[in-house]
Amino acid sequence: MVNDKHQSHLLVTNGFVLRLPIGRFILSFSVIGGFCIPATQLKPDEGTPDLPAGLVRVRMETDGTLHDVMEHDIQKVLNPSELDLCEDLSELQSVNECGALHTLTSRAKASLPLTQAGPNLLNFWPPLNQHGKVSARARTVWDAPPALAALVRRVYVSMVGTRRDQSVCAVGRSGTGKTTSCQHIVYNVISPSVCVCVCPVERIQAVFTILRSFGCVSSQHSDASSRFAMVLSLDFNHAGLASAGHLQTMMLEKWRVCQKMEGESNFLVFSQMLAGLSTEMRTELQMHQFPEANCFGIVPPTKVEEKQRASVAFTKLLVAMETLGFSANEQRAIWHVLAGLYHLGAAGACKVGRRAFVSFDSAQVASSVLGCEGEELHTAVFKHHLRQLLQRATGGGRERHATTDAEEGPRMSATQCVDGMASGLYEELFTAIVSLINRALSSQQLTLASVMVVDTPGLRNPRHSAEERAAGWSELCHNYLQERLLEYYYTHTFTHTLERYAQDGVQVDFEAPETSPAEVVSSIDQPALQVTHTQLSATLRKCEQPLQCEVSHLMGSDPVRYDLTGWFSLVQNNPSALNAISLLQNSSALFGPRASVPPLCRGLGGVEGGSQRSLQRSGTVRKTFSGGMAAIRRHSHCISVKLQADALLNLIRRARPVFLQCVGAKTDSGGGGFDVPALRIQLHSTHILPALQLYRTGYPEHMTLSDFRCRFQALSPPVMKRYGSVFITPDERKAVEELLVELDLNKKSTVLGAGRVFMKRGVLKYLDQQRDKLVSVWLVHLQAACMGHLARQQHRKMKVQQMAVRCVQSNIRTLRGVAKWSWWKLLCRVRPLLDVNMDDQRLRAKEVGIDSETTQAKLLSLEIWYRNELRQTTDILETKVTAVSSELSDERFRGEAVSQALDMERGERLRLTRENKELQVVLQQHPNNSPVHKELQGMALQLECCQTEVEYVRRRLKHTEERLEAERQTHLELDTKVGSLQAQLEQSKRSATELKRQVRRVTSDLQDARVLTDSLQGRVHLRFEMEMERMKQIHLKELEDKEEELEDVHKSSQRRLRQLEMQLEQEYEEKQMVVHEKHDLEGLIATLCDQVGHRDFDVEKRLRRDLKRTHALLVDAQLLLSTIDNPGHSQAPGSKEHIERLHCQLEESEARRAEVESVQKTLSMELENAQIELENICKHKSLVDEQVAQLQHDKSDLLKRLEEDQEDLNELMKKHKWFPNHIRELQAELEEAKKQQHTLQEELATSMARVQFLESSTVGRSIVSMQEARVCDLENKLEFQRGQVKRFEVLVLRLRDSVVRLGEELEQSAQTEVRERENSQYYQQRLHHMRQEVEDLSQREQDSSRRCLELEMQVTELSAVRQTLQADLETSIHRIVDLQAALEEVESSDESDDERYECVTVFDV
User: Fold this and answer.
1) Which segments are annotated as binding site for ATP?
2) What pTM was computed for the model?
3) What keywords are assigned to this protein (predicted)?
4) Is residue 121 packed enough to be buried (19+ CB in 10 Å), middle (13-18) or exposed (0-12)?
5) Which residue ranges make up the annotated binding site?
6) Range of lowest pLDDT (15-24, 172-181, 698-707)
């Protein structure tokens, strides 16, 4: 068993999922379809026989059972657990089926149904939890899932950046959420431009509401399954805002309105209308009572919940119509047509007897609702042959041909007539609704590009719904359209990409998948008579049931069984549908004439257009339906389906496609898991895994050389400076090479092709981010400048406003001052009386201006009306021209076919008449007794001989039959041997397919490993560069710190020297002061001696104490002076603080000395490293010199080759100069040959005329044979001249090719020479840089040696300072001791003096 840390993957191929206990290896093998069970691989025990080659033994972790499986079915998945919720499958380390399935299921369980698959998006449906939602307030804000938002953002940025149309195409099965995903994409596309665009979210929601009602049915897959193809185009203006919309639809399943499938309903609008109509509309439409039976299956809802749901949907439908601007009359016309269809289904058709309605009353109600008479409706439905007779009697040739084509085939039944009328009515109604939608979304703004969202009905198979029935015609149409889309996806993803690589010379190790949808498409497109037996066995298979076949859809992974019963009645031409068009055009103005497409393609909607983009799209559809097979077989329903698919693909090819691959993940009913076999089939059908491998190993991002340079040259200032000028026409390839060197990208991530730059995934995103960073800085400066400019303008405006306010205030103050003046009052009374005439004049002028403006407005409105009328007339005329041109091409084709048939018939008639005449001449020339009779007798004898020979042959035939029987037995034995050999061959083919599968798996693993290695190499390279940069910065920082420390030591030592000098100066000043005090004391002593007679004991005592103290100070000063005079034996007293400070300074000096010694050692080591680097550089220099010598040698070789090529070129130029003369001669000969040909043709014509004359005359056969021989000779000469002319032309072309080839070789040699020169210059520059580096290193070495000497001198100085400081310390200690002794003596002397004074005092007393 494995740990929880390694359990997470649920991986499947056809059966179990196995998980290895070591690492994250996961095995999958096919035992039982569709189960996911973890297992452990086992090794054989000792003594146990080994398994056969190709088998492995595994143990299931669920029940512990053992199974032997094939080794080639095992898949290893090396994806870590962090990639279980990976947003992009291309980022997986191991891309295979198991890894992809595990990631998809993990994301689905985490409520993340959308996953990126390279450039496309994969939708896992149905999601367990909806991420995106619409806000409750007016439902105008759409919160899209991150993957969908990223896809829409990428499409929008690509459209704005490239100014090219983009398309998002949804493919997948029916019921996989394609329509819902397309709606979400449209909401997210228009969400940034809601404030300005003419098609906001409310209108888009209204569009989808109407399309849901009129184009969807309820089925077992979903409540609203689409039954029409849709292309919704959103046009964006130059500001990047949505300016208009255009809807184009294709109703492939037009019989849905009259033929309901089992388990499905009719179109949803019928049930909504029957449940939600108001009482007035029911009265108007005569729908108060519902008949019990309806042949179209249109029944009102019976359950209460269904009625409520249908009523709410009908209310939403009415609101949507009001939002899109449907008028009341247009809505009434729509409800009238729907009610007419309902009553027409209630009327029914007689199955036996004459063609008529079953219910005459319902038919009358239907005719009144449709706005016509009952007889007119009956004639349009059943008696369309009367219209054909009328056209044949009154119309021209075109009508006669149309009626002839329409009468082809068997007579239609009444049911077919009613169904044709219903389908025609609903087609016209749906097309009219699409036209109204386009009217609401249209705009006359100029557009930049468009985003097209393509939604089509999915692939339908009754087996998906567990139904036992076979599929019908409608399923074939939708499945064919899905196969065409998958074929385009295959071509765009693989074929075009590999062709682009081959065209630009880019090597990519990838092979396209062998199977493609083109096989099924080609087999369906081909007529039945052209389908060979091999194709029938490969893609089509005849079933055991009658009129049933099986088509291998999705490259054989999803076969669909079709029932062909009743298909002829569906595909044949039905005139009732054409009569429905005229019926609606006569009844309502909503259904105008439309001649844009052939009658059988009336289901196309949106072919009209008002803007430039819509006209281009409509022109694409018209071209599809006016050329090719459309002009020849325009009355074929089968070819109409193909033409609609061609039109859809032609629309998509105009844009850059992005595919939304919808995958059905219906959960199992048992364990709550997923339908794994269905997932595997869908992944295999869309080639997701090969597409991911090509996306990872190839170069999915590419740009032209000029676009790449112009877009990213701002990232390199030198390239920008060199090639940024618009007046320079640079060499794009050279400029791009320099730009790539400056960008410092990984060499494996970019490749230069012939005219493009190919990049790995993520490179373009990285470059865009770097460009955005650079541009953002520029934009910030630009915004600052703009804001400053606006602020200055605002300041000026405020100053003007302030001045105006002051003026107004001064005027008001002045007015208040003069308001009471009498003359001002008089002026205020007289002034209005004078202004009356002026006001009248102004009023008249304004009335005249208003009249002119109204006339101009009327003229403008008339001009706009005339312009619209002219545009409509132009569209109608264009459609008529296309129709007439198609009919003209049809007539021309038929005329050519008839003329060919007439020519063949005339030639055959002439040949027969010639033979008849020859035989008559022969019979006339030979009578009865001629040798002819003798010849007949001889022939009779020969007949008898032949009869005898026949008897002999019969005997031999019996013998031959016996031998044949023996050979038949031997043939049977050989057949058995051949069967055994075929079985062996099939076994070998099976083994070969297994080997191919293993090779593919190994190649995919190698590609995954290569991608992983490339990513790791890039990361390691980046990390190594970052580490080197960091180490370099650290080393530089350490050097700076050391230099700062040395400077600090130097400064501190200088500071200490200054302090010592100041201390010496202070001590010298103290010594001078002591000397002065000594002299003063000596003078005082002399004065005291003079005053001995006047003895004062206190003064004497004080003087005696001062004398002793002075003596001690004198001794200390003498000692200090001796210390100064003799530095080695000086002693000076000092304090304890001074001594401690000296000790501290001593320790600091020792520490600094140690640091200086360490710095000296590091500098010496750096010096050694520099010497080693210098030696390496010298070695590299020698290698570079050798390379330069080799390059010079190669250069000399190239010069020699260039000289040889120049000589060859000179010879070729001589030949080239000779060629024009030769060509002129050949042209002259060619003209002579043409003249001879012309003369020979004239002679041939005269000879043919003479031959005809001779054939018509009775001239002999010899003259005719001579003329024929002459004609043959002339024809032979003509053919010889033609062959000679062709040979001369081929010779000229060959010579031109050789000249061009030699010119290309000369250009290549010149390019190689230029490249070698650039290489030599590059190596010379590099050598120069190396020499400079060597000089820098030598200079650094000299600086370091000089610094070492300075440091050594500083160390010696510091040692001398230390010795002096120690001597000063000893002197200070001696001074302290002496001072202490002197002070003690003074104190003792003071005490003795006091005692003596006391004694003297006592004695005196």
Assistant:
1) 172-179
2) 0.63
3) Actin-binding, ATP-binding, Coiled coil, Motor protein, Myosin, Nucleotide-binding
4) buried
5) 172-179
6) 15-24
